[in-house]
Amino acid sequence: MSITATVAVLAIAALHVYILVLEMFLWTTPKGRAAFGLTPEFAAETKALAGNQGLYNGFLAAGLAWAAFASDPVGFQTRIFFLVCVAVAGVYGAATASRRILFVQTVPALVALALVLVAH
């Protein structure tokens, strides 16, 4: 895999670590509420749900990090799988929560996916 594709996969993993931190640890803080446009009351009521969601983002990050360094053919297959998972999750998030998710999550995942496919 090319260095560019590896960096792209790791960047998507880092993004999901950041989302994990926002959802699991900063959800009710001013920074977390601002990132998701939440009121203090709504953030407090949904803190447990956000923590669960953050954990799933952590799993995506872990899978992408593993995939970035795994040797082929498993590495290639795993990169494809996790990048498609991120893109699909972004489409669903854009349809149900905020269109901004499409540009924060789906578009970068599709760019990384294209780089992985070209590098293969």
What features would you highlight for this structure?
84% helix, single chain, elongated, mainly alpha, 120 residues
Detail the topology: elements first, then pairings.
Layout: H1 3-24, H2 30-36, H3 40-45, H4 47-69, H5 74-96, H6 100-119
Helix pairs in contact: 1-4, 1-6, 4-5, 5-6
Q: What features would you describe in this structure?
A:
With 120 residues, this protein is mainly α. 84% of the residues lie in helices and 0% in strands. The mean pLDDT is 95.
Structural classification: mainly alpha
Task: Identify low-pLDDT runs.
Answer: none
- Tally of contiguous helical segments: 6
- SSE order: HHHHHH
Strand content: under 5%
Please provide the count of β strands. 0
The helix content, as a percent range, equals over 70%
Largest sheet: none
Multimeric organization = single chain
**What sort of overall outline do the alpha carbons produce when their principal axes are compared?**
elongated
Radius of gyration: 15 Å
Average pLDDT, rounded to a whole number, is 95
End-to-end separation in angstroms reads: 6 Å
Task: Please sum up the structure shown.
Helices cover 84% and strands 0% of the residues. The chain has helices spanning 3-24, 30-36, 40-45, 47-69, 74-96, 100-119.
